[in-house]
Amino acid sequence: MRRQPILLRLAILCFVLGGFALFRNLVSTWSTLQDYPSAQFLPVFLSTRSASGGVDPILVYFVWGPLVFGGLGVVLLVVHLLTRAGGAVAVGAGAATAAGWQQPQQPGGWQPQEPQGWMPEQTQQQPGGWQPEQQQPGWQPSPPSAPQPGPVQPLGGTQPPPPNASDRIQP
Questions:
Q1: Computed over its alpha carbons, how large is the radius of gyration of the chain?
Q2: For the segment 104-143, what is each residue's pLDDT rounded down to a tens digit?
Q3: How many folded domains does the chain comprise?
Q4: Closest Cα to residue 61, out of 24, 87, 34?
Q5: Do residues 56 and 50 touch, judged by C-beta distance below 8 A?
Q6: Is position 52 within any domain?
Q7: Residue 60 pLDDT level (bands cut at 50, 70, 90)
Q8: Distance CA 41, CA 67 (A)
Q9: Can you give the pTM of this predicted structure?
Q10: 150 assigned to some structural domain
Q11: How far apart are CA 75 and CA 81, in angstroms?
Q12: What are the two backbone dihedrals, phi and then psi, of residue 90, each rounded to the nearest 5 degrees?
């Protein structure tokens, strides 16, 4: 099972901590309003003073935790989404540039390459596709032969592995 990215896990943690603080503050406010029927909701809900009159740290967490942790969770979630989308674009552009530089130059004209990638061969060959009108000198079609060493070829009746970033066609 794949682990979630750290920013997403931190955002979820912030939402859980903020939600817990909001829930506890609502329960605490409800119980105080049951004990003191003449008290108003908002002053009790926003109060951080304990019964002795001092500031209680747990009440500060209950009152301000939902705001602080909720805002932090939103920021972390936005940063996660922006970096995930930006990272995919940067990786795709880098892979496309690297693929362009890695194509070998063949003397004597264009040489067809064996199809690569994760798709089975029957889906890679499209009937009715473009066919060259004339053969150029030096161009030799490769006869069908045994599978070339390289990427792992799927067995006849099995599903191909899922694609990865290098298999994608980037615009």
A1: 31
A2: 555 555 556 665 666 555 554 455 556 556 555 666 666 6
A3: 1
A4: 24
A5: yes
A6: yes
A7: very high
A8: 18
A9: 0.48
A10: no
A11: 10
A12: -65, -40
Q: Give the residue numbers spanning the domain of 84.
A: 6-98
Q: State the amino acid at position 10 in one-letter form.
A: L
Q: Which two tokens stand for residue 152?
A: 């792992």
* Token output for 33: 């309003």
Contact (CB, 8 A) for 156 and 120: no
Cβ–Cβ under 8 Å, residues 168 and 96:
no
- Phi, psi dihedral angles at 49 (to 5 degrees): -90, 140
Q: Say how far apart CA 27 and CA 16 lie, in whole Å.
A: 16
Residue 13 lies in a domain: yes
**Cα–Cα distance between 144 and 163 in angstroms, integer?**
25
63 has a pLDDT exceeding 70: yes
* Whether residue 79 has pLDDT greater than 90: yes
What backbone phi and psi angles, to 5 degrees, belong to 136? -85, 150
Residue 81 within any structural domain of the chain: yes
Tokens of 31: 């119980």
Q: Are 136 and 109 in contact (CB under 8 A)?
A: yes
Q: How many CB atoms lie within 10 A of CB 51?
A: 6
Contacts of 157 (CB under 8 A, 6+ apart): none
Rounded (to 5) percent helix, strand, coil in the chain: 50, 0, 45
